[in-house]
């Protein structure tokens, strides 16, 4: 058997050897045929081509001119074709750059004569096996020929004739130029992305250095970018750029150019974070850079810098000067934070001014366009807009207090206010004016984080913000830039209409900064038209504006008041690393950001922690006052809101509250907005009863409450050492109960305290009776109306009357927590007065034993608004009057 197996294995090896030999023969034959075919084709094409004209490889370029938005446009900047390319000699290029490019682009560059037949054959076989084009075989010389000599329309052609022409010219060039000269010219010609042509401009743009000073990790990154500048852009795609740099380093190790240790050290080097560019405009360098970005996106870098374009922008020189002055006049000392300002005309959605940093020479990074920072409470208007659009009225009553919100995934969200103070019951409108985080945490859960994110996008926020519950407080997954914040607030200024241009229609809204682009022959290439989209109904936008006006009039943004109708919102992050004021009038929308562009660190300036209501509001004030000087003060449009209906809702779910909901809010809704379904988040879920036997009574209650279980106490007299200890429970730990059900606790007791019978009394009278009996009192409302019962009256107690307890007693009151109007009962008999008060949901403290007497006085007086279930003090004629209890 073993011998048979060995023979079979031998035959198998022989078979594999035969297959390998045959395959190798086929490949060699294909390569030979391919080589002969290519040589014959090249010879045929070469015979019909003129000799290479080396002097013709520098193309002519035409200047591009950028103008402001004045009636008589004035020149802002000139873009020259050679501005993005600086020619350097071979000695001005670091040798490691040449090594890196050869290693990744053409490893046989020093061996072939312009055409790499081996690579052609390899690519031919690979494509043959794959059934389609998989590999390219162009050499560095061929790539240089394509970029420097062939007409632009031929460069993207994939025809065989173009490839043959390119190969013949490459061969001719190799006969006349040295390898180093070809490589140097290639490095001076190719495009590296970010508007950079040639190795010198790439070194300046990506690293702020010269080509001669490039290091190994820098050279490897630039060599990798060449293949696809957009895909391997380290600013836009750092992960892909890092992987491509590693591929270059690996190729250099394989070809013996560097050691593995050198490659490992280079791979650890950080990527560049921001491009280094030179200013193009003294008045508005950041605005000009933003315009250049759009031109490159629309037309390509070559046309943008050398295509002879005439670009007419929206920049208002006077407003830009006002923005420059405001940005530097208050925070003007060394070490002060950076200020960014963006101003937009809400009538046209045109960018009138843009300040991206402290100074372009020192900081090329444009915070206004590219800075993604947390907005803090400046994002609350989008949550408010979402709530209004969903039908919730801002007059709804919330509870301002520290919150621990159950997120339903085993985690809780703890929220406090910025100031540490809490208002108790407060309307949503006032909570906006005071920027109350705890109220907006409830609002986020009621409206839904995703609805808030959608509202922000509809109004003009283009950055992805996620659906974190903290979104209503400005806690975003990423961040937002001043440009999009000014644009989104402009939607409110435009009475709910978002207006955006069509020039860069890539699926996201963008304000207009370029009006039109024409060529040097006067032909219009692009005319940026405005598209209107209704994000909010006019009355919805007007309602929100009326609230944001109060932020400036009496809230956190009083420093922004400019003596004319204006609205806005402050924003501060918890670490004081970002501070905002975003505001608008009917004629101007502007966002002001203050912070450090290169880091997130706490801002303390002149001894002041920088919040949105401090320096940002002051800067907005100074800018808006100057920018609107000479512009008549206009009022915001009038509006009328629809009628509202009231509902008692659960803030966690936004649905109708049930007896299981731990918190209830009185909310008002516009037509179609009121919830119709009961809350299911706090519904009667089945939970496991905890084993609390042996716990003290306080701990046991806490553990049961955490599971949303109630309890009843049975006193067990006995061992004094067991007083206050749970000595038994029913059901026992481990069993399951519906949430809201009670667990009977047997608690060791001293002297018994029996719960008095207060069913049928009004809420306040019942509470007084329980307090006199030594019990604490908690109130719960059964939420039912219209069943014939008297609102405000006690219908049950927990525990029940006669039960022994040493803790608090919960009185269950019929109806909802609301205010009622006290009726006039003066002159009525005592019994009739009691009946009239009961019908209104109130109680009276006069006797009803039939002993006579009419009501002489009542306190509070008739017409007073008072909480349902309150006790009205009555005096009767002809009877001594008791002193009312507090």
Unreliable sequence segments:
1-10, 15-38, 40-51, 53-58, 130-135, 880-886
Number of strands: 33
Q: Please list the strands of the largest sheet in the order they lie side by side.
A: 2-1-3-11-12
Strand content: 15-25%
Radius of gyration: 39 Å
The major sheet is characterized as: 5 strands, mixed
Number of helices: 25
Terminal CA distance: 107 Å
Structural shape: elongated
What does this structure look like?
This protein is α+β, with helices and mostly antiparallel strands. Helices cover 34% and strands 18% of the residues. The chain has 25 helices and 33 strands. A five-stranded mixed β-sheet has the order 2-1-3-11-12. The protein starts with a helix and ends in a 10-residue tail after the last strand.
């Amino acid at each position: 058997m073993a011998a048979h197996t060995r023979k079979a294995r031998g035959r198998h090896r022989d078979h594999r050897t035969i297959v390998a030999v045959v395959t190798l023969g086929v490949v060699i034959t294909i390569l030979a045929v391919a080589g002969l075919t290519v040589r014959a084709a090249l010879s045929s094409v070469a015979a019909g081509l003129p000799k290479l004209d080396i002097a013709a490889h520098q193309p002519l370029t035409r200047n591009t001119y950028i103008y402001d938005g004045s009636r008589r446009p004035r020149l802002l900047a000139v873009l020259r074709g050679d501005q993005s390319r600086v020619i350097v000699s071979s000695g001005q290029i670091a040798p490691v750059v040449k090594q890196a490019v050869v290693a990744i682009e053409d490893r046989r560059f020093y061996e072939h004569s312009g055409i790499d037949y081996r690579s052609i054959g390899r690519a031919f076989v690979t494509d043959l096996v794959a059934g389609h084009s998989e590999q390219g075989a162009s050499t560095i010389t061929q790539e240089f020929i394509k970029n420097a000599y062939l007409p632009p329309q031929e460069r993207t052609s994939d025809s065989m004739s173009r490839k043959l022409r390119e190969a013949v010219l490459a061969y001719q060039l190799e006969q006349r130029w040295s390898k180093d000269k070809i490589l140097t010219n290639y490095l001076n010609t190719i495009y590296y992305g970010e508007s950079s042509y040639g190795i010198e401009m790439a070194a300046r743009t990506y690293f702020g250095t010269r080509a001669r000073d490039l290091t190994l990790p820098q050279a490897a990154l630039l060599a990798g970018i060449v293949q696809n500048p957009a895909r391997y852009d380290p600013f836009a795609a750092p992960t892909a750029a890092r992987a491509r740099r590693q591929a270059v380093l690996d190729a250099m190790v394989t070809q013996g150019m560097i050691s593995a240790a050198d490659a490992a050290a280079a791979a650890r080097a950080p990527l560049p974070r921001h491009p280094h560019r030179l200013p193009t405009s003294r008045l508005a360098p950041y605005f000009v850079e933003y315009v250049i970005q759009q031109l490159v996106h629309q037309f390509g870098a070559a046309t943008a810098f050398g295509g002879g374009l005439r670009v007419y922008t929206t920049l208002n020189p006077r407003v830009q000067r006002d923005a420059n002055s405001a940005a530097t006049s208050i925070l003007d000392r060394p070490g002060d934070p950076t200020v960014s300002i963006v101003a937009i005309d809400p009538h046209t959605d045109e960018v009138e001014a843009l300040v991206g940093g402290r100074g372009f020479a020192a900081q090329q990074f444009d915070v206004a366009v590219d800075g993604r920072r947390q907005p803090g409470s400046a994002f609350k208007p989008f949550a408010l807009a979402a709530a209004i659009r969903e039908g919730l009225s801002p007059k709804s009553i919330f509870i301002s207090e520290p919150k621990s919100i159950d997120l339903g995934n085993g985690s809780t969200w703890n929220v406090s206010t910025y100031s540490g103070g809490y208002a108790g019951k407060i309307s949503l409108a006032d909570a906006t004016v005071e920027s109350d985080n705890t109220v907006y945490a409830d609002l986020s859960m009621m409206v839904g984080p995703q609805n808030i994110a959608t509202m922000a996008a509809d109004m003009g926020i283009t950055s992805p913000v996620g659906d974190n519950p903290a979104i209503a407080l400005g806690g975003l997954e990423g961040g937002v830039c001043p440009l999009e914040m000014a644009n989104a607030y402009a939607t409110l200024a435009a009475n709910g209409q978002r207006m955006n241009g069509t020039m860069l229609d890539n699926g996201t809204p963008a304000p207009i900064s370029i009006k039109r682009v024409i060529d040097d022959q006067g032909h219009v290439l692009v005319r940026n038209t405005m598209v209107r989209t209704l994000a909010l109904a006019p009355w919805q936008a007007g309602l929100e504006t009326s609230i944001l006006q109060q932020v400036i009039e009496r809230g956190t943004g009083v420093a922004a008041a400019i003596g004319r109708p204006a609205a806005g919102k402050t924003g501060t992050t918890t670490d004081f690393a970002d501070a905002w004021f975003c505001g608008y009038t009917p004629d101007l929308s502007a966002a002001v950001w203050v912070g450090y562009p290169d880091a997130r660190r706490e801002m303390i300036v002149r001894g002041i922690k920088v919040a949105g209501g401090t320096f940002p509001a002051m800067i907005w004030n100074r800018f808006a006052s100057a920018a609107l000087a000479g512009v008549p003060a206009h009022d915001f449009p009038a509006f009328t809101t629809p009628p509202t209906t009231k509902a008692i809702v659960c803030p966690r779910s936004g649905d109708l509250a049930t007896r299981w909901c731990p918190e209830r809010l009185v909310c008002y809704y516009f037509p179609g907005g009121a919830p119709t379904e009961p809350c299911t988040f706090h519904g009667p879920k089945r939970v496991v009863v905890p084993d609390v036997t042996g716990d003290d009574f306080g701990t046991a209650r806490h553990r049961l409450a955490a599971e949303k279980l109630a309890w009843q106490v049975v006193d067990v007299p006995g061992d004094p050492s067991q007083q206050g200890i749970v000595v038994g429970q029913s059901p026992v730990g481990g069993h399951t109960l519906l949430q809201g059900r009670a667990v009977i606790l047997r608690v060791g007791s001293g002297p018994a305290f029996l719960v008095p019978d207060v069913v049928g009394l009004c809420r306040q009278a019942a509470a007084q009776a329980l307090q006199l009996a030594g019990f604490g009192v908690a109130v719960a409302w059964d939420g039912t109306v219209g069943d014939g019962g008297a609102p405000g009256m006690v219908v049950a107690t927990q525990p029940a009357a006669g039960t022994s307890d040493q803790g608090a007693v919960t009185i269950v009151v019929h109806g909802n927590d609301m205010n009622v109007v006290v009726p006039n009962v003066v002159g009525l008999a005592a019994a009739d007065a009691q009946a009239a008060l009961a019908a209104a949901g109130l109680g009276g403290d006069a006797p009803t034993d039939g002993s006579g007497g009419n009501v002489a006085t009542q306190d509070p007086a008739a017409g007073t608004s008072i909480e349902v279930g309150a006790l009205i003090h009555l005096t009767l004629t002809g009877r001594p009057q008791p002193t009312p209890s507090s």
